[in-house]
Amino acid sequence: MTNTQACLITIGDELLIGQVIDTNSAWIAQQLNAEGIDVTKRIAVGDTDKDIRDVLDEEIPKADLVIITGGLGPTSDDITKPLLCDYFGGKLVVNERVRQHLLDIFARRNRPILERNMKQAEVPDNCTVLFNRMGTAPGMLFTKGEKRIISLPGVPFEMMNIMEHEVLPLLRKLATGEAIVHRTIFTAGEGESIIAEKILDIEAALPPHIKLAYLPNAGMVRLRLTGRSNDKKTLEQEVRQWQQQLAERLDNIVIALEDQSLQEILSNTLKTKKLTIGFAESCTGGCLGHYMTQVPGASEYFYGSMVCYQNHIKESVLGVKAGTLAEHGAVSAQTAIEMAQGAQRLLKADYTLSVTGMLGPFDEGVKSGKVWMAVAHGTGVITKDFTFHYDRARNKEMAVQMGMLLLWKVINGKL
Amino acid sequence: MTNTQACLITIGDELLIGQVIDTNSAWIAQQLNAEGIDVTKRIAVGDTDKDIRDVLDEEIPKADLVIITGGLGPTSDDITKPLLCDYFGGKLVVNERVRQHLLDIFARRNRPILERNMKQAEVPDNCTVLFNRMGTAPGMLFTKGEKRIISLPGVPFEMMNIMEHEVLPLLRKLATGEAIVHRTIFTAGEGESIIAEKILDIEAALPPHIKLAYLPNAGMVRLRLTGRSNDKKTLEQEVRQWQQQLAERLDNIVIALEDQSLQEILSNTLKTKKLTIGFAESCTGGCLGHYMTQVPGASEYFYGSMVCYQNHIKESVLGVKAGTLAEHGAVSAQTAIEMAQGAQRLLKADYTLSVTGMLGPFDEGVKSGKVWMAVAHGTGVITKDFTFHYDRARNKEMAVQMGMLLLWKVINGKL
User: Fold this and answer.
1) ipTM (interface pTM)
2) Of the residues A210, A240, A256, which one is the last residue of a structural domain?
């Protein structure tokens, strides 16, 4: 039996003019994949009646499951609900549970309830309502023969809540077909071409039901193995063995065998080794602290970060010497060292990392950003310099990733 | 004459399993839109020969322009180039300019050049090469009758560079049809339903060639007017007049009349008023500093941020009293006040903003995050508390946005 094939459709002009980035589809795809459902296509169309009907006409015959997000709000550019109602031949009727929920929400927020809000209690009589605990627009499930078409609000946390409480439990009941197993090898230090050469024979020996993909990003490469089989237990063992074989071959560049972010990997190391860290950030502007505190429980090992975006703050707060700045400049090994040591005095963490550099935009003739970093620990200090060739935003992302990697390497004695 | 209709196709399994978020499509859509090209559909498909061919068969007849990204790398999961070559009936031949460029890149990086890298110098003999200054995979332009099909690498800065230097100049030469003009009204303080009621009559009076969209995000709502006409100059005046009318009606909630981020709006205010700022961040972990330093030239007004993720750092670096923490807790008006005042002593900026709170994940029974903020200026200090109902990441984003908004309001005397 083949797996359920899903198509994701996102509705909204804002996606076609690039005013917002679609994060919903990636999240939905992850959830479906974990249930053994293949997403074969993702489509974004505008708030246009004909375009939406065309895409439904085209995609419903090809997929077993269609999940539509967006266009369910209370304003006039939200046309999805009446359109779907009509498309599947129903009419709008007030749903008592949704109506009561709306009245409760507005009473709780102490906001006036408008006619256009009460309209949200109307749902097609030919759908199953997917209750929205987090907001005012209910989700809807339509059935057409064996096919299921689901419509969800575009607001991410509302969509996620309906997926978790309504959609995924339903899909689990209907589940059929093969299991899908992913395993990742997270590497840093070589490009994808060199890695591909090193593992040529292993890649060639992979059985047809296990696929390898290369995902390069910000100076690191993730290798992803994806296996499919009816026998999930055997498949898990099998994919794990291939992962092990690749990891042994790539030994010195492997950072982790989980699909985790670098901040999660570094956090795990710090918790295991019971170490604490702090930062002195100049060009990264606080982004290192921001990434580390994305991980819940970061207060266990993350003390803080002194963001010193101006030289006089580097001097007055971190104790960088005026002479150092005058002689070597703010972007230098010496300044990085004094920043990291200043952060040690200020924060008293086991390891402190400093970052100082130029990320762009650059003046005429300058094409790349120079960044110096230092890691201080006890009386020791290590420095490293980087050159980034991209724009301001990407150079900052690179500096943050390379900073976390440097700290991870120093702490694990891998430098 | 109607506008060029474009379809964007992204290739890669990573998009269908949700391992990466597609930021390329939003950027490309913005660029095309600015040239008067309508993006009518965005599609993501996997690295599967049949799926890619099917989507080309379906979409090329409907669009004037198809832009494909991804699948051009040097590894075996990158199948786009030979597929397109075959689809349009060509064969692969070595391109001398690309070959020389590859040799130069590897020489400069002092890296060994592999057979699989040199393969990237092969291009279909039925395409126009779009030179890739920033990387190894060239872009390609195929022509089918009046239709143009463009293939670009998926690495964002490579794609952007080819778009800017090769694709957009070409599209400008071919440009026909109506001009598109967007104007935005950035509001904070009311939800989209209330706004819609307030401007009901204005929205109803809009001419058919001007459309209004509501884009709510993180406690703020952007209203976007989009006009289309053959007479760009008159259209610009017209859209501006409607924008003015809406802005007057919504007066007390309007933050800006540009489609800018809050960090850009705040930066403009600081530059105009020649003021400096600094932060004391607890729960936002450095994200406020990160956002402010996204704006080039931030060192003119942004001094720095003390990220104090632990109470003992709040005490030792910012001088928050142990008694205050013990009596009122870290999440309190009193702690926020002492943090903002401590940041004033430390950073000596005109205005300092402090943020302290709980963003989640929460223990059983706790459903929302409480955050206190304070703004200190001279001897004065203002506090404000917030309750956020979402998950850790979204609550952090809300806290950062509300922090910048609070600072903007205090500085502009709008609180």
Assistant:
1) 0.81
2) A256
